[in-house]
Amino acid sequence: MQNLIDNFRFYMLIIRTKLADDTPPSACIIHANRSAENLLGYHQKDLIDRPLDSVITLKEISVWEEALASTEHGDADNCFEAEIITQNQHRIQALLSLSPLPKQNTAYTDSVLLIQAIKPGNDLLVMRRVVEQSASAMMLTNYTGNIEYINPKFTELTGYTAKELLGQNPKILQSGNTSLEHYQNMWSALIKYGEWQGEVQNKHKNGSDYWVLESVSTIKNSEGEITHFLAVEEDITHRKAVESALTESEERFRQMADLSGEWLWEQDPDGYYLYSSSAVKQILGFSEAQIIGKHYTTLLTPQDQESQTAFSTNHHAFNALVNHYQHRDGHQILTESTGLPITDPNGTLIKWRGIDRDITAKMNFQAALIESEKRTRMIIDSSMNAIIIMDSSGLITDWNHSAERMFGWSADEATSQRLDKLIIPERFHQAHQAGLITYLGSGTWPLLNQQTEQVAKRRDGTEFPIELCVSPLKIGNDYIFSNFIHDISGRKSAEKQIRQSQVNLAIAQNEIKIAQEIQATLSPSTPIKLAAFEITGFCVPADKVGGDYYDYFFRNDSHLDIVIADVSGHSIGPALFMVETRSALRAQNNPSVTPAETLGLLNNFLFIDLNNSDYFITLFYMQVDLDRQQLSYANAGHPPPLLFNRIQNKFMELDADGLIVGIKQDVFFEEKSMSLCEGDVILFYTDGLIEAENAKQEFFGLERVKAIFCQNSHLTPQAIIDTLFTTLQDFCQRTLFDDDITLMVFKWH
């Protein structure tokens, strides 16, 4: 391996960084391959133990320390520019890449430092700076769609870190509001033309939606094969919000204009119509489309055409101007017109805006009667309820617009038809006719003058629920019946959904109660306090039912087993898996079965159940040999417990290789052993502790846990747990958390 590294053509150094709590980390070279020796002009023996700042300018050391810190936190980008100093003091601009080596020591960190010399005017470096500093979000995926690179702007736009997105499919960002056809068209265009551009709605990490204008291009190799896809995104969320607000405002204005019943219009400076509300149809018989583009004088009667021309050429508003219009069918319409000139800041006329009110009825000989009938008609037609008037023989005499929309029959089609034949289901015909006959004979009908729920039918035969109120009115010697009908389909549907929701809620509450009862039986009810040791635990679920589990029990007189686990999810499912896990572990009463073997047996035992239910378990298992004062442990992907040696004032993370339970069968679990020393204290915890956030979105963090644990290690296990949890509540300023938090402390006397 050493010979292979030495013969690499790229320049490589291995750097050792010594760590100390009270001083900055110091770095030195512990190995260099031949290419690096040649670049720097040193023999290998001269480079060994040489301080890093002897080959990198002091100005860049702080940058190197930041890169080292970023690798420890798992950040994706650990490259940085630096100036290399050769033995003869020649300075070389270079791009450095830092990667930590596995199996680190707590006293130092070993890292691989790759050096790439940068030639003046290097296009690659310029392009890297362009991408990193771009105001546009950029994402690079491989051919299968997995993300391989994102620039800083992309993390800012999505809220995800590079670590969270690298290796993921961009589907993680989809909001669910973009159709499958949209994405299919995008991929078709990419394959056919090599590029695509369009608007996409995605979801931010915090759950909010955002819009981007996305340009996607294919990247091909020298053989013309597509290897990658590059997406460049511009945030257009604000623009879309403005467009939506503008559209809503325009729609609101249009609806208000249509509902007003008055003719609203706009004209250009020369008097040609730019806009017309739908009321023009009611007043003049023309549709909006027939009005737009016409000069206003073409609608006037001949006597008004000449006298009214002057109003379009001056800048003076007019009010209550009486116009004589020619209706589409030829009869004369009188309106009261009000107009306002719209000018720019320079006083130039831009357009006219005005309103015409039909006053034909009140200017007519039968003004009072016509006005009354018109008002009644407008009330009926603008009513949200269907209004149907029926005579004493059951024939329809009036049918308003809401009735047209509700039942699907136009007024012309409905008038003179029998009410029961048109809107009443056939099974109720006889009851309707009998009630009408009874009322005409005796003056009584239970349905009259009260609101009742009935069933009606539409033109297509579909039935729906309605609220019906029937009021009789005697005219001369005859009767008419006014039917006021309200469609309650939406209300009935909502009531049904509410009832179903109440059922679902009751079921869910019952499941939660069952899960709580199950979970309450899992953890030990009391701590263990003996001369040799003391152990206790504590669990706070994030929801009514948590996914954490801890246990400690004697396998026999000389062996104590300790376990802590985190089952994914909440509610009754994880609670049942806790029971199954606890039963499987406690059933292993053979003291010769090691922790690693126990995890292997447990994984195979639970694999099918976990795999079928999409759950998994992280679990740490420890066995304490009380006679030999030795502990053995194995880990299935759980946060490693912290062992604090009070004599040496030193922490140790108890970790071992092993995959989480429920992912695959026949997993190898590494097992480690060590001797216990007097005063050793071990803290077991779940990730809810270190990942708890405060209002500033700062993590409680492992380092803070270590500091509190160290300061209180002399206390009893229960006191240590109480101090940790109280400090956590003060840090987060709350008592409820987003994830379950479990703590367990073992103290060897």
TrEMBL record:
SUPFAM superfamilies: PP2C-like, PYP-like sensor domain (PAS domain)
Alphabetical keyword list: Coiled coil, Hydrolase, Kinase, Transferase
Presence of the UniProt keyword Transferase in the record: yes
SMART domains: PAC, PAS, PP2C_SIG
TM regions (residue ranges): none
Coiled coil: 491-518
One Pfam family it belongs to: SpoIIE
Keyword Mitochondrion carried by entry: no
Biological processes, Gene Ontology terms: regulation of DNA-templated transcription
GO molecular function, one term: phosphatase activity
Residues annotated as domain PAC: 196-248, 318-371, 450-500
Annotated PAS domain residues: 123-169, 249-306, 372-426
Protein name: Histidine kinase
Taxonomic placement: Bacteria, Pseudomonadati, Pseudomonadota, Gammaproteobacteria, Methylococcales
